[in-house]
């Protein structure tokens, strides 16, 4: 039998190398077509857009086009492997945009690590796109880059590893808390990782009711404590404690949130957790601890990973296609907190209403065809109600429109 490694390389190399290609949407088979698609006809929409830039949404692909942009500094849990080596992931994200939500995406791998230069480069590229999905850019640079791009650009800019991850973690946690009969305000959380994904997940956990004093965060040097020198993002999570290592804070933890690296959670630490522990080991491709090893020492655990080959796939792919679909269709100026919270609620509710709902089904699966029609309209409504939508979409009419789109996908 072939190994996963062999299959993965064959999958990516057979036929036309890579996973995505470009499609032409207009007739170009005759001289008459060509004279519209290219010179002289193409000059007409150019002049219209020059007079009124908003016309780009009418005459070009901009309104349905997202840039999936990385510099390759935090590719999955593989770390700083560089822009080019990150390309398979970016092509993969582009595939999911297209297949799950009908959005065209260009993957752009930029060989630049200086945050200010990266902001300038991405800002200069932005006219091409209706939205920008930042991907696999490491902390703390990602915070600066996203913040400055959001300030400068009037199209949605969204760092998937921060907010996409947080949304799906939020949805999974709401359901895990319900299934284990917990009070979220008393939940004790240990987070492994203090980077892009961790910081955004923890912020969202606070919004969902988790108390800051119940959260212990660890980076590569151990627990974030008030007596350590920390970046401003990490300082917000420092605890006044003598604890040094993750093992020191695992006692009676209700939840382990892993957004760090492979194999960093030990079975002995799972044993220290409260009954019915919630273990989200989300590092990709190799989680902090494999589900079967968690269950070996905690049979009543709720376990999630970022992978497609285990139940409970907590992965930002469960939300970014629908957030961008809603943002593009409602011409939202950004993807704001009410849109993110609407997405959390919609994902959690969809899992709860499913007959499979239970400890091995806390979030819908990525291939669930109900996601596009179930989640997207809720996000668009939140965009409208929170004032960032330039176009109001009636929820029912929009759902019908998405049902038609869904039939053309997957
Ligand atoms: N399932 C999902 O949907 C997603 C999963 N992830 C996963 O989360 C992980 C982190 O991604 P991201 O936040 O973007 O990357 P970042 O580079 O921004 O952050 C990585 C973090 O991991 C920490 N870390 C490294 N080694 C250790 C260690 N031994 N113990 C504790 N913490 C450690 C780093 O510590 P330090 O700050 O000291 O360098 C840093 O805080 C990756 O594995 C990625 O695959 C990310 C996004 C989505
Ligand atoms: C899923 C994802 O975005 C990551 O692991 O980086
Ligand atoms: Mg990522």
UniProtKB/TrEMBL annotation:
Annotated Malic enzyme NAD-binding domain residues: 162-384
Cofactor: binding comment: Divalent metal cations. Prefers magnesium or manganese.
Keyword terms: Metal-binding, Oxidoreductase
Chain sites annotated for binding a divalent metal cation: 135-136, 161
InterPro entries: Aminoacid_DH-like_N_sf, Malate_Decarboxylase, Malic_N_dom, Malic_N_dom_sf, Malic_NAD-bd, Malic_NAD-bd_bact_type, Malic_OxRdtase, NAD(P)-bd_dom_sf
Cofactor: Mg(2+); Mn(2+)
Domain of life: Bacteria
Active site: 38, 93
Pfam name, any one: malic
Gene3D superfamilies referenced in this protein's UniProt entry, alphabetically: Malic enzyme, N-terminal domain, NAD(P)-binding Rossmann-like Domain
Molecular function via GO: malic enzyme activity; metal ion binding; NAD binding; oxidoreductase activity, acting on the CH-OH group of donors, NAD or NADP as acceptor
Domain Malic enzyme N-terminal per the UniProt entry, residue ranges: 17-150
UniProt: (S)-malate binding residues: 284, 315
UniProt similarity note: Belongs to the malic enzymes family.
Annotated protein name in UniProt: Malic enzyme
Organism: Noviherbaspirillum cavernae
Lineage: Bacteria, Pseudomonadati, Pseudomonadota, Betaproteobacteria, Burkholderiales
């Amino acid at each position: 039998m072939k190994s996963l490694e062999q299959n993965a390389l064959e999958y990516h190399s057979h036929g036309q190398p890579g996973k995505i290609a470009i499609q032409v949407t207009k007739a170009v088979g005759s001289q008459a077509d060509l004279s519209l698609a290219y010179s002289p006809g193409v000059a007409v929409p150019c002049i219209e857009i020059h007079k009124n830039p908003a016309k780009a949404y009418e005459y070009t692909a901009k309104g349905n086009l997202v840039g999936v942009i990385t510099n390759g500094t935090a590719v999955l849990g593989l770390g700083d492997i560089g822009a080019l080596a990150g390309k398979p992931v970016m092509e993969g994200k582009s595939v999911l945009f297209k297949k799950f939500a009908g959005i065209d995406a260009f993957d752009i791998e930029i060989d630049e690590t200086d945050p200010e230069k990266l902001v300038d480069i991405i800002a200069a590229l932005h006219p091409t796109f209706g939205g920008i999905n930042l991907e696999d850019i490491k902390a703390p640079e990602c915070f600066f880059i996203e913040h400055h791009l959001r300030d400068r650009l009037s199209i949605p800019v969204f760092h998937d590893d921060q907010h996409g991850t947080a949304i799906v973690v939020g949805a999974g946690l709401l359901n895990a808390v319900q299934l284990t009969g917990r009070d979220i305000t008393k939940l004790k959380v240990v987070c492994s990782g203090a980077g892009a994904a961790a910081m955004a997940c923890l912020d969202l956990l606070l919004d969902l009711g988790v108390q800051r004093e119940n959260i212990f965060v660890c980076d590569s040097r151990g627990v974030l404590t008030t007596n350590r020198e920390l970046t401003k993002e990490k300082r917000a999570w420092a605890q006044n404690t003598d604890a040094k290592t993750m093992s020191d804070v695992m006692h009676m933890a209700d939840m382990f949130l892993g957004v760090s690296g492979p194999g960093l959670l030990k079975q002995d630490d799972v044993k220290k957790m409260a009954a019915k522990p919630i273990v989200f080991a989300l590092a990709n491709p190799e989680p902090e601890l494999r589900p079967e090893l968690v269950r070996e020492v905690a049979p009543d655990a709720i376990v999630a990973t970022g992978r497609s080959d285990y139940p409970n796939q907590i992965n930002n792919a469960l939300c970014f296609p629908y957030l961008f679909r809603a943002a593009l269709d409602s011409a939202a100026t950004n993807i704001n907190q009410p849109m993110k919270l609407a997405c959390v609620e919609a994902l959690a509710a969809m899992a709860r209403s499913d007959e499979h709902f239970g400890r091995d089904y806390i979030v819908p699966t990525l291939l669930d065809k109900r996601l596009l029609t179930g989640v997207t309209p809720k996000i668009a409504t939140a965009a409208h109600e929170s004032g960032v939508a330039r176009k109001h979409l009636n929820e029912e009419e929009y759902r019908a429109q998405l049902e038609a789109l869904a039939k053309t996908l997957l």
